[in-house]
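Bug report (template v2)

What were you trying to do?
Predict the complex of my protein with calcium ion.

What happened?
Run completed; filing so the output is reviewed.

Input:
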Amino acid sequence: MAMRILVIEDEVKVANALKEGLEHEGYTVDLAFTGEEGFFLLNQQTYDLVILDWMLPGRDGIEILKTVRQKGIRTPVLILTAKDAVEDRVEGLDSGADDYLIKPFAFPELLARIRALLRRGREEKTLRLSVGDLEMDLVTRKVTRRGKEIQLTLREFELLEYLMRHRGQIVSREMLARDVWHETLRATPLDNVIDVHIARLRRKIDQPFAKKLLHTIRGVGFMLSEVAP
Ligand code: CA
């Protein structure tokens, strides 16, 4: 069955080009030209992915996204933005976006992001990972520490999964950019974005607990380990 994508973008030319390109790739695409229209469709139908333009007339993309997440809709959301200041990215991620792409972008890059987000939503194996009392169930995608459930975004989940699969090993920012963000070539390094995610993950998995599991190796990267490196 074709994956269903909702594109919320007010620029008609851009929206139509996206629809045409994505349909050519075999996706089923619905278009919404305002945030309200997009929100309405999200409530009516089930989508595998939402591509959401930040700058929309009326309620902007971030407002729509916050409302969607408050309603408990967990559909992966890729934000399109012409803004590229770090604070704006952080705001987007804090609002519940799973990824973002800065306009103008190359279409193959958009396709790679879409595939990564859809893969993350689909990848289900009968596996459990654990580091100390931190556990990840890859079937239910539930993360717990001392039996207490921890809510993660898709990106945080994939980041943690990667760190757990490499437990006890140093993971560099380059490894994370390549294997979690699926990017090797990029004009602006992902370091800030990675550090923001690491900080957010640390707040969730470590802050409430006495024993720290996520360690920063200065100048090198990170390590998830029961034993401080
Ligand atoms: Ca726009």
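What did the reviewer find?
Residues 179 and 226 are 23 Å apart (CA to CA). The mean pLDDT is 87.
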